[in-house]
Amino acid sequence: MKTEIPTPKPTKKRKKIGLANRILLAMLLGVVFGIVCNLFLPESFNLALNKWLLNPIGTIFLRAIRMVVVPLVLFSLIGGTASIGDIRKLGRVGIKTIAYFMLTTAFSITLALLFTNLLQPGAGATPMETAQEIAASEAPFIMDMLVAIVPNNPFEALVTGDMLQIIFFAMFFGIAITLIGQRTRGIVELFEQLNEVFLKIIMLVMNLAPYAVFALLASVIMVQGIDVLRQLTKYLVLVIFLLLIEAFIVNGVALAVLGKVNPITFYKKYWPVMLVGFGTSSSNATIPANLDACVNKLGVPSSIGSFTIPLGATINMNGTSIMQGVAALFIAQVYGIELGLSQQLTIILTATLASIGTAGVPSAGIVMLTMVLQQVGLPIEGAALVLSVDRIVDMFRTSANITGDAVASVVVAKSENELNQDMYNQI
Ligand code: ASP
């Protein structure tokens, strides 16, 4: 007998907006609750409340998020790399696009790290104690680090959650699938479906986010006092500032210098798509609007746009990498952990790879942040801190992400002499 798998009803838009609002509300309630407890209740009561209720709720949520990371990265990267299979067909375009994506992402994180080192948004308060004693690990020698990306045993990498090794293995696997070709169609479909399943799990887990945000924020504030709020506001302002620089200045310069076109014309026509990204917090959901703008307004030929835009929505996340860079350093500063140069280079490398592995759906970047933290030996509870303001950051970073995809399309089209200049200039 054939078992029918029931098709779930499509999630209603209303529900998504509801979740965002619930997280914001939970954040406010958590802050108020934390302040009231910190000011008016005895410390012993606060500690007990933390131990018996708030910490477990928060930790369950964080564990549930981490549960998804390893399989999600594995399946999404295998699927992604296998679909770059067209790289041979698309030849130069493919290589140029991917090189552009990687370089701009690494550049964005470097920028983010420079500013965060300079402005120190997380410094200035009594260093927080981590639940488990996690100090920054000894800075590894950079060559050893590169060598260690190749796993001795991929299964060991999966079990221990060594992300760089998993990413390396997944890409290799995807390339092999591509080289074999048609016969592996079934596997590609299987991985694509598994990817969908894990994205669904993330959506389900995210329903717990309001409770977790309440618990984690209240717990941090009631124990640490309100100092930490001041730092969180600094983080929020800094990260939004950097995302705006990325969206308008870095991309604008790329358009002018690499694409040799007028950036103002670009933004005059492109801003509605930025709003779609802002509103949906999802690069994937923005693909249709983005493609339409590139092909019908900016003069990118559809052969190039239909490659660069979906690929970009999957692997090119400059905004996300900025958030991950700033958040990692911010968390280190809040916990009073010094990060050396080599650890900061690890952040650049890991966040570049993590942003490639980040799915173009709401909140995916924060899931991958836990991986960056783990890679440099920072406490992953730190992710809870930035999670509380992440709904807002997600909107800005998604806008920056999708703008980067469109700019890449224009630059690559121009370099191929295929940009329809008349259409581009027409307002
Ligand atoms: N929401 C982002 C996007 O779709 C991904 C992220 O959470 O960073 O581009």
Protein model, in words:
Helix 10 (263-280) runs antiparallel to helix 11, helix 13 crosses helix 14 and helix 14 packs antiparallel against helix 15. Residues 11-15 and 129-140 have low confidence and may be disordered. It is built from 18 helices and no strands. The chain is mainly alpha-helical. It has a single domain (19-425), classed as Sodium:dicarboxylate symporter (Proton glutamate symport protein). The chain has helices spanning 13-40, 43-83, 87-119, 142-147, 154-160, 163-180, 185-206, 209-224, 227-257, 263-280, 283-296, 302-315, 318-334, 341-357, 364-376, 382-387, 390-415, 421-425. Bound molecules: aspartic acid. Aspartic acid binds at residues 281-283, 317, 320, 358, 360-365, 394, 397-398, 401.
Q: What is the CATH class name?
A: Mainly Alpha
The CATH homologous superfamily:
Sodium:dicarboxylate symporter
Q: Would you tell me which CATH topology applies?
A: Proton glutamate symport protein
Ligand inventory reads: aspartic acid
Low-confidence stretches: 11-15, 129-140
Overall mean pLDDT score?
80
Q: Main β-sheet: number of strands, strand sense, barrel status?
A: none
Shape: globular
- Could you say how many structural domains there are in total? 1
Number of helices: 18
Structural class: mainly alpha
Instruction: Give the H and E element order.
Output: HHHHHHHHHHHHHHHHHH
CATH architecture call:
Orthogonal Bundle
Q: How much β-strand is present in the residues?
A: under 5%
Comma- or semicolon-separated keywords:
427 residues; mainly alpha; Proton glutamate symport protein; 18 helices; binds aspartic acid
